[in-house]
Write the structure tokens for this entry.
Amino acid sequence: MGYGRALLLSLTPAALLVPLLDRGPWLWLAGGAWLLTMMKIGSDNVLGVSLRQHLTPDPLMGRMNATFRFTLTGALALGSAASGLLAELTTLHTTLWTGATLLALSWIPVALSPLPRRRGVRGQG
């Protein structure tokens, strides 16, 4: 299947069910959607890190990992602050829908990149 196509196998639209969180069956539906979303994020993490490590020369490996870790934790902090601000200015429900929509659309940058055509990691575009 290749790295690129595996990254595009997206279950992240399941995130759109999370804002339906309520009591009874809706709680189970939202919980199942969150489980699928977290499984997708976990597999994307493994695929992305593996691809970066295969493509990065050994002398640059530490810098590449540190840069990605710094960028990721910075994005998490900014996203947390932005969602808190959004919840303060609007409603929690609006914030949940906004986050779910952004998470569900996270496959678009991957789809528009050269990654979907990549089959392997060495010398195979």
Q: What stands out?
A: The chain has a mean pLDDT of 85. The CA atoms of residues 21 and 28 lie 8 Å apart.
